[in-house]
Specification:
The protein is mainly α. It has 3 domains: about 5-40; about 60-150, no CATH class; about 165-215, no CATH class. Helix content is about 55%, strand content about 5%. It contains 8 helices and 2 strands. A two-stranded antiparallel ribbon has the order 1-2. The longest helix has 26 residues, at about 160-185. It starts with a helix and ends in a 12-residue tail after the last helix.
Length: about 220
């Protein structure tokens, strides 16, 4: 987000236009009055609060370098497991940006070293956008990767996809019918066309009025 103020103005304009589309009024003066009532801080939106923050310290290392520097050489972390940790993390948690590896912040590497390499309980306190989620889940991914080495190899389960899909489709349709029957007994359901007819009749009555409300009646 390079221009947060412009983004805010665009979002605000989109919401204001939304009220003019489905809730249109016959008289333009009333439309402008409604816009003035809504276009105020604390009614439809709040003015943005910009909090400048200094850049977080970067290690200059991507997740592979950090994993090797923290875990390599330890008895419980052979080279193939460290490589799997890198591949696992780069598959979704630290996606390369346009082919460029994601550089870790200092607190992210320290979290990995404290919790994974040393086995300590750790607490991380940083600001917004500092990568706390990545700092927390990288040790979890590393632990799962190391644990998966000892998991027994399971043969693939037999699959009969077409038959399963048919059963799921029939079951979903039957469940929908059951919920519809229960809801129709408990809640009075009004057809959509009746709601639209009521709105149309209300609009026709509104158009037939001879009195045009003044702006003061709405403010």
């Amino acid at each position: 987000m390079s221009d947060p103020i412009r983004t805010f103005e665009n979002l605000k304009s989109a919401y204001l236009r939304y009220f003019d589309s489905p809730y249109d009024l016959r008289f333009e003066e009333l439309v402008r009055a409604r816009g003035r009532l809504l276009d105020r801080d604390g009614v439809l939106y709040r003015e943005p609060l910009i909090e400048p923050q200094p850049a977080y310290a970067s290690t200059g290392e991507h997740v592979g370098d950090a994993a090797r520097s923290v875990l390599a050489g330890r008895a419980a972390w052979p080279a193939n497991v460290v490589g799997d940790v890198t591949g696992f993390a780069e598959a979704g948690l630290f996606l390369p940006r346009g082919g460029t590896p994601f550089e870790l912040y200092t607190h992210q590497v320290e979290m990995l070293r404290s919790s994974t390499a040393h086995g300590n309980d750790a607490v991380i306190l940083t600001g917004t956008g500092s990568g706390k989620t990545e700092a927390i889940y990288l040790p979890v991914l590393a632990a799962l990767t190391r644990e998966s080495v000892a998991w027994p190899h399971l043969p693939p389960a037999p699959r009969n996809v077409p038959q399963i899909e048919v059963y799921l489709t029939i079951g979903t349709f039957a469940l929908f019918l059951l919920f519809y029957l229960i809801a129709s007994r408990l809640i009075p359901l009004v057809p959509v066309w009746e709601v639209q007819e009521g709105q149309m009749a209300h609009s026709l009555r509104k158009v037939g009025k001879t009195h045009v409300p003044s702006i003061s009646e709405f403010e």
